[in-house]
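quick one, 94 residues, struct below
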Amino acid sequence: MTEASWNNEAKTPSIDWSVSAALENVERGGQDIAEVTSLEGAVRAWQSLEPEHKTLAVISIEQPIQLDGVSTSHFAGDTIAALVEHLPVGNSDT
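---
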């Protein structure tokens, strides 16, 4: 019998950073208007927010992705921070 093992690649398969994403709950110009961009763009925009705005921000995508073994399509706080750890290196397109 073969024992199954879960490595980090199995917990977080390749992420399609080009999927459409909405960065929500972030005030812009006095209004709470969602920014629609790519998942990569939304995560990079979240990185530049002030700490108090980071805690309120939510990123939503249409199709769930698997992140650290959990399938989800809505990200907030620590789950957005976990996405940051998986961002493509050297890419800053938003």
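The radius of gyration is 14 Å.
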